[in-house]
Amino acid sequence: MAENVEELREVERLLIAELKIVNKHIARSRKRLKDLLSEEYPHVVLADGTKHYFRKSELRDLAARLSGDEVEELLLPIVIVSRPDMGEGAMVIEDPVASRVVARLLGLKNCSNPLIIYKPHLAFLRSLYDTVFQVVMYLPLSEDGRGHAY
Predict the structure, then answer these.
(1) Is 17 inside any structural domain?
(2) Residue 142 included in any domain
(3) What are 22-68's pLDDT values in tens digits?
(4) Residue 92 lies in a domain
(5) At CA 83, angle to CA 82 and CA 89, rounded to 5?
(6) How many domains does the chain have?
(7) Labelling 37: which of 17, 24, 31, 60 has CA 20 to 30 A away?
């Protein structure tokens, strides 16, 4: 029995290591839209140390669609978590401000938090603002959903 537990722990450790590789494009920290608009070359630093640059035209267009408070509060990139455990193509936006903004962009009347979207929604969002979104992979490591990695 103890041997099985150790094997499971090793598999879990390997899966987490693989997810870190798959998700190396995740921003170390996100920046407010307001702050990115004032940068000459708007960017965030990624987990692997490289930079992700935002198109200024996308940032300006997005800001024009938002309220002043949302421009102040919205953190970019908007993180979309791929959740295969929730069904094929299911993705979640956990940030409440981002959920509200994305729901409006998609024309959804009822905005829940977290906001659940699907592949066609992502395709539409990317067609509007390709540099604004980051998709991260999620892996449930326990049946209760508490242990996970992304």
Answers:
(1) no
(2) yes
(3) 677 789 999 999 999 999 999 999 989 999 999 999 999 999 999 99
(4) yes
(5) 75
(6) 1
(7) 24
